[in-house]
Amino acid sequence: MAAFISSTKTPQTMICISLPQLPFLPIRSPKPTIPFYIHSSLTHNSSNANNNNKISTNPHKKPKPPMNNPSRNPRKKPSYGTSRRSAIKKSFSQEQVVFTGPVSNDPVVGIIGGGMSGLACALYLEKRGIKSTVFDTGLRGLGGRMGTRKIHPEGLIFDHAAQFFTVTDPKFAEMVDDWSKKGLVRQWQGTIGELEAGGQFAPLPTSPPRYIGVNGMRPLADSILSQTSVVDVVRPCWVSTLEPYNGKWYLSEKGERCGQFDAIVIAHNGKCANKLLASSGLPLIARQMKRLDLSSIWALLAAFEDPLPVPSFESAFPFEGAFVKGIDSLSWMANNTKKLVSSQNSGPECWTFFSTAMFAKQNKVPQESIPAATAEKVTKAMLEGVENALGLQKSSIKKPFYSRVQLWGAALPTNSPGIPCIFDPQGRAGICGDWLLGSSLEAAALSGMALANHIADYFQSGGTCPDEFAVGLHNEFHPLQGHDIGQFPGLASQGQLDELASFSLPCSCPRGSLRRQTETFELLIAVAELCELSYLYDTLQDVVTE
Ligand SMILES: Cc1cc2nc3c(=O)[nH]c(=O)nc-3n(C[C@H](O)[C@H](O)[C@H](O)COP(=O)(O)OP(=O)(O)OC[C@H]3O[C@@H](n4cnc5c(N)ncnc54)[C@H](O)[C@@H]3O)c2cc1C
Known about the structure:
Elements: E1 4-5, H1 11-17, H2 34-37, H3 40-44, H4 84-93, E2 98-99, E3 108-112, H5 116-127, E4 131-135, E5 148-151, E6 156-159, H6 170-181, E7 185-187, E8 192-196, E9 200-203, E10 211-213, H7 218-224, E11 231-234, E12 241-245, E13 248-253, E14 256-261, E15 263-266, H8 271-278, H9 283-291, E16 297-304, E17 321-325, E18 332-335, H10 336-341, E19 349-354, H11 357-362, H12 372-390, E20 402-408, E21 415-416, E22 422-424, E23 429-431, H13 441-460, E24 478-479, H14 494-501, H15 514-530, H16 534-545
Parallel strand pairs: 3-4, 3-15, 4-11, 8-17, 15-23
Antiparallel strand pairs: 1-2, 5-6, 7-10, 8-9, 12-13, 13-14, 16-19, 16-20, 17-18, 18-19, 21-24, 22-23
Helix pairs in contact: 4-8, 4-9, 5-13, 8-9, 15-16
This protein binds flavin-adenine dinucleotide.
The site of flavin-adenine dinucleotide has 40 residues, from helix 5, helix 8, strand 16 and helix 13.
């Protein structure tokens, strides 16, 4: 039988409360002094499995199990405040949950978030023989920021977040290979490049290969778990409460219980994750999550009757995707029709436009209820940005026959701890997501895989030496480099490559000298920075500093 220990008026609580004053000190959660808080028989006597072994300051008072029906206490306030400020305050003052009992022989993991990272985590847990349930809010499908929108009956299609990706890691390459065999991905052969205001276009090199979902990104997400046998998916489901009880985590959606688990994975971020963690009993995890900064991005999906007059470059075809430079309201534009449907040069075209992060910050509204006036203003500004980028006169583009704006309020991470995953073995809870390693689909996948393997190793150990499995709970964050819509490891413009070539390896000092080594490291750092390999960048920086 597993037990968890929690107390509200104890010396331990005071240490936990002191966390915000010492945010960078590696404070370990206090070891439970079992006899003080709990009658020891409760911890180990399996005959008590159904007893309430939740600790309270009054040992004779039996705590209640997590509520299943919110109407039982309708006037009770939710356990977390609704404002960000309230959420932050709560998460710093909460006490640490400590699971002390042995890990179950047949553990089940609850994964909250069915984006790339949560799905990769479930897949890799399955590879290690561990059951999991993925909860996701998606109404139309899994995938989170791998969204594809299809509009019927017009047959319009838009990738409305992730556009394409590059591959550098062998484990991610394996996943992409699998998609490729199933006919779900292919290389994007169309021209992509950088577009300066006024219509000046420079293509990016065709290497490394750029990949896209054949029918958009969402089907890739839907396929990840298609051949698994010990993964459940619950969707749409908005997990709103995490409660530790009797050695398990209980998850619920608006008071309705949705399962009990031996460990939990938070595979999402932003305001929702901060709220969820604010009163969960995981202060270290909550603190790391709160250090994360996220940008916002406006997406404009627009379908035009006639093709947009897109510039080409020398012998290249007119571009299909472009990183836009020098325009406030625009950072990316892509022709979904060319990318996903056909290469014909006439007929309607579906375009995805993304704003810059700065523009989104200046025009931020609640993403769930965008005021009509804001939608109109943003659409107008972004379409003007398109005209400006293409070097066209104002109002020369015909009004799209379909358009829709969406705000990605928590679009992309702007800082990262640069570690594949976070795991709190005391609380049997972990975090995965793109932001742990970067801001790309590859980063998200690698993070999910890493956390799955870490949890599997922890379970395999029986949970007897928890301290050995604590990871990422105190790492500092570093700013992330990249485009407004994320990182594309390996992809650099010709200008960046030229800049790189202008570095020359020093040859005047003796081989192996400190100076030569430092200069070589500096060159490698420049390469890592240009190619947005943030983990390599940080590691090399650390080596040089040392
Ligand atoms: C505009 C934009 C453009 C991008 N372009 C690219 C690109 O071209 N190439 C690239 O590689 N990357 C791109 N990215 C980044 C890429 O999409 C992300 O890095 C990646 O999808 C993140 O995956 P994730 O699993 O970490 O998070 P997410 O995809 O955000 O998944 C989290 C999931 O958790 C769910 N969730 C949240 N709260 C709860 C809850 N309480 N209960 C249940 N479920 C919950 C969410 O609904 C979501 O489905 C882009 C991102 C944006 C916003």
